[in-house]
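In response to reviewer comment 3 from the previous cycle, which asked for concrete evidence that the modeling workflow produces usable outputs, we include below a single protein chain processed end to end. The sequence was submitted unchanged, and the resulting C-alpha cells are shown without manual editing.
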Amino acid sequence: MGPRASLEDLYLMGDDPMKQSGFSGGRERWVAERSPIVAAIDGDGDLLDVGCANGLLLEDIVGWASDRGHVIVPYGVDIGPGLIELARSRLSRFDSNLVVADAWAWQPNRTWDYVFSLVDLGPDDLACDWLMRLAGWVAPGGRLIIGSYGSRSRAVEPVGVSGLFETCGYDVTAEALAGEPPISRFAWTDL
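The workflow returned the following C-alpha cells.
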C-alpha cells in the first residue's frame, strides 16, 4: 500500500467529516482555521479544490461564500476514490463535478475562476512546478489560491505561502491568516 492509499485509509477510519478531511480539533476550530479562505473569493464563479478529500471544505466554501453574497459552483479532484465517493454524497447536486485523479497527471479540459490547493501536495523541491501546473487551470482573470495548514498537536507552523508565490515568480494579491499563532495561511494571485 502506497503513502497516498494509506492516507486515504487513515482519513476513512472514522465517521467524523473533519477527520475525513485530515483535521482534528472540532467544528469551531475548523471554521476558525478554514473560513478565512473565502477572503479570496470576490465574486461568483466555479471553484476547483485540488485534493478535495471528502468535500467538506468545498461544501463549507460554498456556504461561507453565499453568506458573503457570492455563488460558487464546487468542483473537486482527489486521488482517493473512497474520499470522492464521500464528496459526491456530500455534494450530490454537483456529483459529476468531483473526479478521482492524480492531480500531477490529470489533464482537465477546462479552466476555473478559482483554483485552490494546498502547497504540500508534492515534494518541496517541486513547489514552483506545482504552482505553475495549478495556474494553468485558472481561467483568464481568475485567481489561484494556495493554502498551508500547520498543526497545533505536532507544533508545526504553516508554510509562508506568500513567500512561496514570490519565490516562484507570482505577485501576491493578498493573504489571510487564521489561528493564534497563525495555524493556517492562505495567499492568492490574480492571473
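The helical segments are 3-11, 26-34, 56-67, 81-90, 127-135, 161-167. We consider this sufficient to address the reviewer's concern, and the full set will be provided in the supplementary archive.
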